[in-house]
Automatic annotation (TrEMBL):
Keywords, ordered alphabetically: DNA-binding, Methyltransferase, Restriction system, S-adenosyl-L-methionine, Transferase
Listed transmembrane segments: none
UniProt enzyme class: transferase
Ranges of residues in domain DNA methylase N-4/N-6: 470-678
InterPro entries: DNA_methylase_N4/N6, MeTrfase_CN4_CS, RM_Methyltransferase, SAM-dependent_MTases_sf
SUPFAM superfamilies in the record: S-adenosyl-L-methionine-dependent methyltransferases
Annotated gene: hpaIM_3
Family note: Belongs to the N(4)/N(6)-methyltransferase family. N(4) subfamily.
EC number annotated for this UniProt entry: 2.1.1.113
GO biological process, one term: DNA restriction-modification system
Protein name: site-specific DNA-methyltransferase (cytosine-N(4)-specific)
GO molecular-function terms, A-Z: DNA binding; N-methyltransferase activity; site-specific DNA-methyltransferase (cytosine-N4-specific) activity
Length: 685
């Protein structure tokens, strides 16, 4: 066959025909789909799920059964190796020859030669594991911990003289003691109250989450951060909102990049007695990392899959793990470390089925063993862990340092204060510089008022203190119907101004129920690209801006949406570092205009928010409707003669409930289509 001969002449290598065919098929990945089908067959017949390392081993066996020296571990599964016909052979070799002509043939040839040598040596998956893990251990030999667990309870709050910045102090003081890209877990036990018996649990949680992501400032140049452009966008947006000192506020905020930790998860027990905040340390590190396939540091590229998390591309032409076009393997530090720990397959790092299913969702059973889960999933055998204020903890093959504090502190370093964060100062400056509307003269007259207008503009014309309570599910930052926000900061500027308008509309000692869920999206705050994709703390940031607007956060009703069907966080690796939960709840933040001591925090189970009919359509034609059961929570907070306000009415659920239950209602919706939809829904008999 001429295509085969052309490739062989081009390679000019002494290589058996059968081996060359296997190499070319494996390198072009033309049979990988068939391999996946074969792997699924084996798993089904043997009632087993293979992890990533075993899948890679099976793939090598699928293509190179006759060349591998050690095939004993595959024999029991009776795997069928790849087959081909003349037409497929012709197509694959023609494609491979084109690549030799198009890309650098020397790199492809060197990679082929290395693959052949590896096959002769037995092609051991993870052959550089020991060497690479030794490198990692040496690199972080002067860093104390791979995981930190800090339990916060009432006694700890009292020991710190009720100072709300005590968690920030711990975050600040221990940051350099944690290995990069590893985790800090803050466990909030029971409800934590201040000297006046006000519940401060959720305030402590949201401030810890925001502080952790923003307490370090990067002032050096970062290639993807276009500070002048971002400053201009923010300043212009603030000018449009008539905010005083817009340019100064924007320049101050974008004087650097805030970083520290990245918010990953917030686990909540069913009775809300335990909340676990999971944070991942992120610090810019441009030092070269050895390639996991060839262990060289001959690298190129300036790629960041996430802000400050760098990935590398191996530039060693002899690396065995090159792409179809001859490009080098791409990898990052923690991903490589995690993979090699998986390859070592220590029993102490395995996640059993019971533990996995107990933590599949981010709402866990009250009696679930959070100590075991945190240690097993966020650390590995022989690593050092700091545990603070936690008794009776099993090490599971780790080295535990347990700090139990009893002394009382009376002063904390002022630099750890939440109020000194750039993000807080920005929104506080916006609030202080907003334009005051003195023409508030609209009086509500109808029992049910449905308004098609900008919510903030209308409420600023409303005579103050006419509303008895409020509830809403605001438009999400990335919602397609409200796409005017180029980044997350601009979104929260509008939410802050609206929160202020709602505050002025409410009577004293009135409640505002605010339904918001965290999302995974590009925040575009510093970098406008996929690099900025992360889990955005919509609930925490909403809490911050509402308190700036004058509200008190007094509770958080957790809306459990049940068994959310999602493969987003599924994994075949029941092993430390791989298991992630599915987000199955939204916040219903309870804000108060006043100082009531009522604590409404609880977990509420309601059917999923999106209603899907038999045709797969959203029957409410709205991206974020909420069910009547959620509005039913207002019964605890509203008098019969009072108005219920929904500043982002959407499909009209809240006013429909008000009409059905004998309450007055005011709903405002900017979108004309949703406005018409809400009228139909509210008044339809």
């Amino acid at each position: 066959m001429k295509e085969f001969d052309k490739v062989k002449d081009k390679l000019n290598m002494d290589i058996p025909d059968k081996l060359l065919i296997s190499l070319v098929f494996e390198m072009t990945r033309k049979k990988d789909k068939e391999f996946v089908v074969e792997l699924q067959r084996i798993q089904k017949e043997n009632d087993i799920v293979f992890n990533t390392v075993m899948r890679n081993k099976f793939r090598k066996y699928y293509y190179f059964r006759d060349e591998l020296l050690d095939t004993e571990e595959f024999s029991e599964y009776k795997i069928r190796t790849f087959t081909y016909n003349e037409e497929e052979l012709k197509e694959v070799f023609n494609d491979f020859y084109s690549r030799l002509e198009t890309y650098d043939p020397d790199k492809i040839i060197k990679s082929l030669k290395t693959n052949i040598m590896d096959l002769e040596k037995g092609n051991k998956i993870g052959r550089h594991a020991d060497k690479w893990l030794d490198y990692y251990k040496e690199k972080y030999s002067n860093v104390d911990y791979s995981l930190m667990i800090y339990k916060v309870d009432q006694a700890e709050f009292e020991r710190n003289d009720y100072n709300p910045n005590f968690i920030n102090e711990f975050i600040f003081n221990t940051y350099d003691k944690l290995i990069n890209y590893r985790h800090l877990a803050i466990v909030f036990a029971d409800n934590i109250k201040d000297k006046n018996d006000f519940d401060k649990t959720w305030q402590l949680i949201y401030k810890a989450g925001i502080y952790a992501e923003n307490f370090v400032q990067h002032t050096e140049k970062f290639h993807a951060f276009k500070s002048e452009n971002q400053t201009k966008i923010l300043a212009n947006f603030l000018d449009e909102k008539n905010i005083k000192n817009a340019q100064t506020l924007a320049l101050s905020f974008y004087d650097g990049m805030s970083y520290g930790y990245k918010f990953e998860d917030l686990y909540i027990s069913e009775n809300q007695t335990t909340k676990i905040l999971i944070l991942k340390k992120i610090e810019l590190d441009n030092s070269n990392v050895p390639c996991p396939s060839c262990f060289t540091t001959e690298q190129r590229g300036n790629s960041y899959p996430e802000v400050f998390i760098k990935s590398w591309e191996c530039a060693n032409p002899s690396c065995p793990d090159r792409s179809k076009s001859g490009r080098g393997k791409r990898f990052d530090e923690y991903g490589t470390y995690r993979y090699f720990k998986l390859a070592k397959n220590s029993e102490s790092n395995q996640i059993d089925d019971d533990l996995y299913y107990s933590w599949r969702r981010d709402i866990f059973d009250n009696d679930a063993d959070w100590k075991k889960y945190l240690i097993k999933n966020y650390s590995y055998n022989d690593e050092n862990i700091l545990v603070k204020n936690v008794n009776n903890i099993n090490s599971y093959g780790r080295n535990i340092t347990n700090e139990i504090t009893n002394e009382t502190k009376t002063a904390l370093n002022i630099v750890k204060e939440f109020e000194k964060l750039p993000i807080f100062n920005l929104f506080k400056g916006i609030f202080d510089g907003k334009e005051e509307n003195t023409k508030r003269n609209i009086v509500l007259e109808k029992d049910i008022e449905v308004i098609n207008d900008n919510s903030t503009s209308f409420l600023n014309k409303l005579k103050p203190a006419q509303v008895g309570s409020a509830i809403t599910s605001p438009p999400y930052y990335n919602a397609r119907e409200y796409s005017q926000w180029g980044n997350m900061i601009l979104y929260f500027v509008d939410m802050l101004l609206n929160a202020d308008a709602v505050y002025n509309s409410l009577k004293e000692d009135s409640y505002y129920l605010y339904n918001i869920g965290d999302i995974v999206a590009e925040d575009n705050v510093y970098v406008v690209s996929l690099m900025s994709k992360k889990r955005i703390q919509l609930g925490f940031l909403s809490s911050m801006i509402f308190e700036i607007a004058g509200f008190n956060l007094i509770g958080n009703i957790i809306w459990d949406k049940g068994q959310v069907q999602s493969k987003r966080n599924s994994t075949v690796n029941l092993f430390s570092g791989y298991v992630k939960c599915i987000n199955c709840y939204e916040h219903v933040l309870v804000f108060l205009k006043g100082t009531s001591k009522k604590n409404p925090s609880k977990v509420v189970k309601i059917n999923p928010v999106i209603k899907i009919n038999s045709k797969g359509e959203n029957t409410y034609k709205h991206t974020a409707p909420y069910p009547l059961e959620l509005v039913d929570l207002l019964k605890d907070f509203t008098l019969k003669d009072d108005y219920i306000l929904d500043p982002y009415l959407g499909s009209g659920t809240s006013l429909k409930w008000a009409l059905q239950n004998g309450y007055k209602g005011l709903g405002i919706e900017l979108n004309k289509e949703y406005y018409e939809l809400s009228l139909e829904k509210i008044f339809k008999k």
